[in-house]
Amino acid sequence: MQLKHATLLAALMAAGFAHAQSQPVIGLITKTETNPFFVKMKEGATEAAKAKGAKLLSGAGKADGDNAGQVTAMENMIAAGAKTILITPSDSKAIIPAIKKAQEKGVQVIALDSPTDPAEATDALFATDNYKAGVLIGQYAKAALGGKPVKIATLDLFPGHPVGAQRHNGFLQGFGLQSFDAKNNELAKPAEVVCMADSFGDRAKGQTAMENCLQKNPDINLVYTINEPAAAGAFNALQKAGKDKGVMIVSVDGGCDGVKDVAAGKIAATSQQYPLKMAAMGVEAGVEYAKSGKKVKAGYTDTGVTLIASKPVAGVDSKDTKVGMDLCWGKK
Q1: Is the pLDDT score of 218 beyond 60?
Q2: Residues of the domain holding 241
């Protein structure tokens, strides 16, 4: 009888081990752990992994631009058995050697939100059309200001990053100013842009950047920001200077807090993106690769963008803040 029990126990343990071995392991590496956008992306990946029966490993850099932190996270995930790694690259060029090493070991690498440079370095990209996101808020600002002369401050990400360049240049293109196309990672600076500063997508840095811009040119009347945390910092600086009523802020992200700022009049309009969708698509591709060995379809998949505005303007398609709250970052 004891032998039968021992045999049964061994069989159960073997079955459990086989299940553990067959469980897909997927890694998610974001730029930071604190930015609300990446917090939401991690939530989406966690939910999708649970639904698909996959194990999710997560890691992040300490701040935007921390390539070394992302490389360490990638190496640790490969050692832990990850066969697919989803990454939002902090440094679009510096991360490529680590990606190549991963791919040589049979690991599928998919970029979320931010492309590498060149984009072909990853197996696929699931992201917002960041240039279009910029164009939409540029068109809105142009129409809302009705031909009024502008002095623009741009609170950007940091030099050379594709997402920062695409949003910045798209905004200028949408406003009808001299700009670059979506493939150029340089930041255009037409005469109407009187101040450019790096915010690293951070609220405190955004506030400091806006304060510095106001010291250089107190007549700024339009502010573009890389994301809504930077926009919140810019608003704080404008409010402290008593200029919040006379300056328009436009941004990109469409997170729930950002949409609330649109509703409150702090931000005039924002281009809403969908990190939950990016994460879910990435996890699904990782599970498929683990089960069938079939890699994701190469190239770029557009995960959508919607303009959310406090007030509609003629000629620019937008949704109101109620819709924005219903959709913010992909929640159902």
Answers
A1: yes
A2: 130-272+306-330
As given in the structure block, the two tokens for residue 25 are: 């392991």
Task: Clarify whether residues 159 and 59 are in a common domain.
Answer: no
**Alpha-carbon gap, residue 329 to 332, rounded angstroms:** 9
Cα distance between residue 289 and residue 108, in whole Å: 8
Instruction: Report how far residue 206's alpha carbon sits from residue 266's, in angstroms, rounded to the nearest whole number.
Output: 14
Give yes or no for a contact between 255 and 229, defined as CB atoms under 8 angstroms apart.
no
Cα→Cα distances 242→27, 144, 210, 211, 219, Å? 46, 21, 13, 12, 12
pLDDT in tens, 118-146: 999 999 999 999 999 999 999 999 999 99
Q: How many CB atoms lie within 10 A of CB 194?
A: 17
| pLDDT at site 331 | 60
pLDDT in tens, 250-271: 999 999 999 999 999 999 999 9
* Residue 215 and residue 137 share a domain: yes
| CATH assignment of the domain containing 109 | 3.40.50.2300
Cα separation, 213 vs 102, in Å, equals 42
* 231 and 241 part of one domain: yes
pTM of the model: 0.85
- The verdict on 35 and 49 lying in the same domain is yes
What is the tally of structural domains in the chain? 2
Question: Cβ distance 134 to 271 under 8 Å?
Answer: yes
Amino acid letter at 140?
A: Y
Interatomic CA distance for residues 155 and 198, integer angstroms: 6
Sign of CA pseudo-dihedral 61, 66, 70, 71: negative
Q: Are residues 162 and 222 in the same domain?
A: yes
Same domain, 229 and 263: yes
The CA distance from 200 to 227, in Å, is 9
CA dihedral 244, 245, 247, 252 (to 10 degrees): 70
Q: In this structure, are residues 24 and 287 in contact, taking their beta carbons and an 8 Å threshold?
A: yes
